[in-house]
């Protein structure tokens, strides 16, 4: 859009009422609210009457008038009480406080009545600036001086409980005298109220009255303050109320009985998980279906604890007989079913038969159903039995463990003689990825073991799994190996249906599972699975394929983030916010105030506000022009400043004036009369009203006709309709838009009075023009100023009219002021160090009360640490430690720069970060997994930019502020620090422990340099997916940022990775750490009650930690409070939980040191046969496989590797060799950086291995006829990238 315009257009903004009747504007009103705190008080206590909730509909200040209510006896209205009310009225205070001394004097009027009581009633009248008023009345009951107030009773723990029907119920209260009763000065000394009695009552759903607890349920507790109910006391899915009532033995008759109500909700029984295991392809030999049931409420439940009902239907043509109906169980009147369903030989003809079973608990509850189709083939063969881990019960597998191993067992001779013996077929296990359609993800190692008359077909395990993706195993069979290879070769990730159509059969299928978390453990389980088609007498087992490395993970489904749509949504929210720019929405209008000094500089007219006539008795006064030189023009200039302290609505033609100094105005004369009485320079408060939406009348120079258009219409469109030639593109600019570039008005000739008002004079007119130059944030202000000065110089040289030169001079002055102001703002930003992570607009309330009462972690000052490092001593990363004021470890000035750089405001303004960086965000109300039938489906997080994350987790409104705790506990984010920077150098200031030997930075540097040296040649080596390969293998993450609002944090979890240090840049945190043995000791007793994995950090410190200490004996732990600049060391193997007590941002870095740790890390990625890690074998041939470490000691592994290496595809081998060299090179690069580690002999990665791998890579590339030269890859393990090595 052009930034400067010279065309002269005539615009008159006028709100039209033609054809669009306006809704009536509501009349302002006030609401009075009064509360007595407390509603019952002893005469010697403090009493408060609060009217703070009173309000004006426009948000204006109120006046408060206090007095006695009619319910207050005359003898109780002593002068001291009356004085309190009068003083509050004089100060217009919204609340009054009656001190114990005054209330005691008034209470003395009760005399000697030990149980006397009186009502103190107070009336509050509130009034606004328009004279609207209303009142409210409330009272408090005052108990006599010597009468006893109620005892205090409070619950221990939460009063809203949710339990399982198998849980026991424990309720507890504490009692005592009310605090104010103990403080009564006039109470007779030595007089006691006696013992406090607690009575428990019970009420269930449907009961109208409370019943004694003992009459309803058996309380097992002996302490009257406790209730203990045995498990299974309640039915699932029910709701119960318990009330504890406290009273003194010597309770006066008028004293109230305080109570505590507990609300207990009993969870409904979840449906049991059911699946049928049996053949999908059966024969004319007998087969059996078996039901496996898992009850989440009773994992040890037996099959006898459930009821079963089987169903069967055959897939037949219309009119044909349902073959299932002829099975023996279905021919009886009342069939009895169990967990197994057997079909004997010849009972079912060939065809497809659908079996289903309905299972429910014997004790009742919801029922579950499982379905299983069986294809009975016209052949005879033996049945298979499945063996699989106990993941089948939960459907969840730890992604770190990879795919589990399964097996199928077949009886070699068969139950029905030779014709049901094992067939001669070719078998191969596959792992199937079940997303939209089942797809063969990879072939698995398939081996066979024959013993004791049985043949077991085993699948290999391991290999990478994607979290949240569903998988299952299939055992495919073919007549020959060639048929199997032809059906599965030459196609990447073929669908299961496609290979079955190519002549393969599904011999067995495992239950489905989802890769997510650690399974619920247990031994393997034998079940009846699927049959296989008979061929001949010989059994052939498929040759296994070598899966040396996980295939590249399939990219997550890309999500399209429509940034324009998000911006539009943000705009709509701002447009509909309740108080736009310090204004207030009233109906379809916006009301706002402006404080102006005289002279005002406003031209008034009644013709610019025709749309208001129907609502205001046909009279309304509005603004027709804002003239330069008046205070209104200066007010508008202040509104347009970007750095204005307060965002306000400016004044423009068409605005209606409602009041002046609180007095309503309807005509021009009303306004003039009020303003004329003011002295020059005196301030007037004007309340304006503007239509939020409405038509705009645009008037162009003659002969063009005036037109009425929508406020959002483009000026060039209006000009086209009016018949006026305009070449500029302009848009409406109401309520804060900066897109208006030109505003030109045709006004009547005016006469000014001394107060700055002007009035139209008939028959005279003048042309008054005004232009607005719009400068966006991204514009070059200096260049704009230079160009305007060139225009001014040209105007003077060409001797343009004086008004044109003054116009340009004024514009030059305005731009220079903008530039000077911008310099001041930038200088302030460059030197000011922010104290908080978030600006006030987005800041969540801090929670200092949740700080640890005592710091028990080992402490050390930064000065002592620096001295220790200078002496050459190392840091102990085996126990937690808090380093206070670690800012001195930073280079001079670096700490302030870090705090300035890493703030929410700066991150939101980073255009590159906003475009490229995305966070995984889980809304508070979104489940991370959902149960569909018997399967657990993992949900996908929302991928949002940082600015959206700040709005979701930090931003609140005055009406609904963002409170810490349950609103923010899900918001903590931990991200790779390199993903938040353009250049890694931005993180250099955060690396404060350069004296500590940390292998990770050197290893990361090697990877980066190796891939930089490879350049574009990597694309010729890996033609498909080179960039993805670089992303997955090129970066070694060891630097992280953790940030979140107050109340966020990670739940209690073990630190199983490397040790790390965490330095807090902004905010405040609380840490708790404990060792594994203490955690296990407490968890054995408390795990089920506390649900550690589901407890957020906020709930842990708020509720669970006191319970762990008091009830479960948690003792051996350390705590720390971490402030800005403090550094905490977290060792490996400890359990930790941290909570942000204020909006926080921290940096943490993992540490890798020590030979044992480095050796284990390297071998786990390269060569660890006992854990199915064979990646190093890519660098060897079948003839040199004996050179692999430890291979000669395992003949079975050696033979298997020789066969498997021959079947490795070229692309797979090349990618695998590069991964080995990347891992080994990262370790060998430490030989010069950290010579004490002796890395050349530390692991399977040796210089000889590097040479072997490079030689093998070159041979594979030549076999592939690749043009890659490998000139960037050193021949020897010298790892110097300054010069490329020669071939």
UniProtKB/TrEMBL annotation:
<protein>
    <recommendedName>
        <fullName>PDZ domain-containing protein</fullName>
    </recommendedName>
</protein>
<dbReference type="InterPro" id="IPR036034">
    <property type="entry name" value="PDZ_sf"/>
</dbReference>
<keyword id="KW-0732">Signal</keyword>
<dbReference type="InterPro" id="IPR050910">
    <property type="entry name" value="JMJD6_ArgDemeth/LysHydrox"/>
</dbReference>
<dbReference type="InterPro" id="IPR001478">
    <property type="entry name" value="PDZ"/>
</dbReference>
<feature type="domain" description="PDZ">
    <location>
        <begin position="589"/>
        <end position="675"/>
    </location>
</feature>
<feature type="signal peptide">
    <location>
        <begin position="1"/>
        <end position="19"/>
    </location>
</feature>
């Amino acid at each position: 859009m052009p930034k400067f315009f010279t065309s002269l257009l005539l615009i008159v903004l006028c709100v039209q009422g033609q054809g669009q009747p306006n809704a009536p504007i509501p009349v302002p009103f006030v609401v009075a609210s009064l509360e007595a705190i407390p509603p019952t008080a002893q005469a010697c206590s403090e009493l408060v009457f609060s009217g703070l909730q009173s309000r004006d509909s426009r948000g204006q200040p109120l006046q408060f008038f206090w007095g006695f209510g009619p319910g207050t006896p005359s003898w109780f209205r002593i002068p001291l009480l009356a004085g309190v009310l009068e003083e509050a009225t004089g100060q217009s205070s919204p609340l009054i406080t009656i001190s114990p001394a005054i209330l005691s004097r008034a209470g003395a009027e009760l005399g000697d009545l030990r149980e006397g009581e009186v009502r103190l009633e107070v009336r509050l009248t509130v009034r606004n600036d328009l004279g609207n008023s209303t009142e409210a009345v409330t009272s408090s009951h005052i108990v006599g001086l010597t009468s006893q107030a109620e005892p205090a009773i409070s619950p221990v723990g939460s009063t809203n409980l949710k339990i399982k029907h198998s849980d026991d119920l424990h309720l507890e209260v504490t009692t005592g005298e009310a605090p104010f009763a103990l403080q009564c000065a006039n109470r007779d000394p030595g007089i006691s109220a006696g013992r406090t009695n607690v009575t428990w009552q019970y009420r269930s759903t449907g009961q109208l009255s409370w019943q004694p607890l003992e009459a309803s349920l058996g309380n097992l507790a002996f302490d009257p303050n406790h209730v203990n109910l045995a498990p299974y006391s309640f039915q699932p899915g029910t709701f119960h109320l318990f009330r504890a009532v406290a009273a003194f033995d010597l309770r006066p008759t008028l004293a109230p009985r305080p109570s505590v109500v507990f609300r207990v909700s009993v969870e409904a029984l979840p449906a049991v998980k059911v699946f049928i295991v049996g053949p999908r392809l059966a024969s004319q030999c007998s087969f059996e279906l078996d039901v496996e049931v898992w009850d989440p409420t009773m994992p040890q439940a037996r099959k006898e604890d459930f009821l079963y009902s089987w169903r069967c239907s055959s897939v037949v043509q219309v009119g044909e007989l349902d073959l299932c109906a002829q099975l023996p169980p279905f021919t009886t009147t009342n069939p009895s079913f169990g967990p197994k369903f057997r079909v004997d030989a010849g009972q079912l003809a060939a065809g497809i038969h659908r079996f289903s079973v309905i299972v429910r608990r014997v004790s009742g509850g919801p029922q579950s159903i499982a379905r299983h189709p069986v294809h009975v083939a016209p052949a005879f063969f033996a049945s298979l039995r499945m063996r699989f881990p106990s993941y089948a019960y939960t459907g969840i597998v730890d992604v770190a463990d990879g795919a589990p191993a399964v097996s199928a067992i077949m009886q070699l001779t068969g139950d029905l003689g030779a014709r049901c013996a094992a067939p001669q077929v070719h078998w191969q296990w596959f792992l199937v990825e079940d997303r939209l359609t089942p797809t063969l993800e990879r072939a698995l190692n398939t081996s066979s073991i024959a013993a004791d008359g049985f043949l077991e077909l085993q699948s290999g395990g391991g290999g990478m799994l994607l979290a949240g993706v569903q998988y299952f195993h299939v055992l495919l069979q073919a007549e020959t190996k060639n048929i199997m290879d032809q059906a599965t070769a030459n196609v990447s990730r073929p669908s299961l249906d496609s290979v079955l159509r190519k002549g393969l059969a599904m011999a067995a299928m495992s239950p489905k599972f989802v890769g997510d978390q650690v399974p619920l453990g247990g031994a393997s389980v034998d079940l009846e699975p699927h049959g296989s088609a008979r061929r001949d007498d010989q059994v052939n087992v498929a040759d296994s394929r070598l899966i040396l490395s996980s295939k590249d993970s399939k990219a997550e489904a890309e999500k399209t983030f429509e940034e324009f749509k998000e911006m539009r949504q943000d705009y709509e929210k701002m447009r509909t916010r309740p108080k736009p720019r310090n204004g207030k929405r009233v109906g379809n209008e916006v009301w706002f105030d402006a404080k102006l000094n005289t002279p005002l500089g406003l031209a008034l007219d009644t013709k610019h506000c025709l749309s208001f006539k129907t609502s205001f008795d046909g009279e309304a006064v509005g603004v027709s022009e804002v003239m330069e030189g008046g205070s209104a023009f200066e007010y508008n200039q202040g509104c347009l400043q970007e750095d204005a302290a307060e965002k306000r609505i400016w004044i423009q033609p068409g605005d209606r004036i409602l009041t002046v100094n609180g007095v309503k105005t309807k005509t021009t004369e009303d306004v003039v009369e009020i303003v004329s009485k003011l002295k020059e320079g005196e301030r007037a408060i004007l309340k304006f009203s503007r239509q939020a939406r409405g038509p705009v009348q645009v008037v162009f120079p003659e002969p063009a006709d005036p037109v009425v258009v929508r406020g959002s219409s483009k000026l060039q469109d209006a000009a086209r309709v009016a018949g006026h030639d305009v070449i500029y593109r302009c848009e409406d600019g109401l309520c804060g838009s900066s897109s208006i570039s030109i505003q030109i008005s045709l006004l009547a000739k005016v006469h000014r009075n001394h107060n700055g008002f002007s009035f139209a004079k008939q028959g005279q007119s003048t042309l008054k023009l005004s232009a607005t130059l719009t400068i966006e944030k991204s514009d070059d202000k200096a260049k704009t100023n230079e160009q305007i000065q060139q225009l001014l110089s040209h105007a003077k040289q060409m001797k343009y009219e004086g008004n044109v030169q003054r116009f340009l001079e004024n514009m030059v002055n305005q731009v220079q002021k903008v530039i000077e102001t911008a310099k001041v703002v930038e200088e302030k930003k460059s030197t000011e160090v922010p104290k908080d992570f978030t600006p006030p607009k987005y800041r969540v309330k801090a929670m200092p009360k949740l700080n640890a009462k005592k710091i028990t972690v080992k402490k050390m000052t930064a000065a002592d640490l620096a001295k220790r490092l200078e002496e050459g001593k190392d840091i102990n990363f085996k126990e937690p430690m808090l380093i206070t004021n670690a800012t001195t470890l930073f280079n001079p000035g670096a700490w302030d720069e870090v705090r300035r750089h890493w703030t929410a405001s700066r991150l939101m303004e980073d255009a590159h970060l906003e475009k490229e960086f995305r966070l995984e965000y889980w809304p508070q109300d979104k489940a991370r997994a959902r149960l569909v039938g018997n399967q657990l489906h993992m949900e996908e997080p929302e991928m949002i930019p940082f600015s959206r994350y700040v709005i979701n987790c930090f931003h609140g409104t005055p009406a609904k502020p963002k409170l810490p705790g349950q609103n923010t506990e899900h918001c903590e984010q931990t991200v790779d620090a390199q993903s938040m920077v353009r250049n890694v150098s931005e993180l250099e200031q955060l690396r404060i422990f350069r004296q500590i030997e940390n292998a990770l930075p050197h290893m990361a540097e090697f990877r980066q340099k190796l891939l930089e040296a490879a350049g574009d040649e990597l694309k010729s080596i890996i033609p498909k997916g080179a960039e993805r390969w670089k992303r997955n293998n090129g970066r070694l993450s060891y630097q992280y940022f953790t940030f979140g609002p107050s109340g966020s944090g990670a739940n209690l979890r073990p630190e199983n990775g490397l040790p790390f240090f965490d330095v807090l840049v902004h905010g405040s945190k609380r840490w708790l750490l404990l060792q594994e043995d203490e955690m296990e000791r407490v968890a054995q007793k408390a795990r089920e009650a506390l649900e550690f994995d589901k407890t957020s950090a906020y709930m842990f410190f708020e509720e669970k930690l006191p319970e762990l200490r008091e009830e479960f004996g948690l003792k051996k732990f350390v705590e720390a409070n971490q402030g800005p600049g403090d550094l905490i060391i977290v060792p490996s193997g400890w359990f930790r939980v941290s909570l942000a007590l204020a909006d926080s941002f921290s940096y943490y870095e993992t540490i890798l040191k020590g030979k044992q740790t480095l050796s284990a890390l390297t071998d786990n990625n390269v060569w660890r046969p006992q854990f199915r890690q064979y990646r190093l074998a890519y660098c060897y041939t079948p003839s040199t496989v004996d050179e692999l470490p430890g291979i000669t000691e395992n003949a079975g592994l050696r033979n298997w590797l020789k066969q498997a290496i021959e079947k490795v595809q070229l692309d797979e081998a090349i990618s695998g060799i590069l991964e080995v060299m990347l891992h080994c090179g990262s370790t060998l690069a430490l030989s010069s950086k950290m010579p004490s580690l002796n890395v050349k002999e530390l692991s399977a990665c040796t210089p000889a291995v590097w040479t072997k791998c490079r030689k093998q890579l070159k041979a594979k590339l030549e076999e592939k006829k690749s043009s890659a030269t490998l000139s960037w890859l050193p021949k020897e393990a010298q790892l110097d990238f300054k010069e490329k090595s020669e071939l």
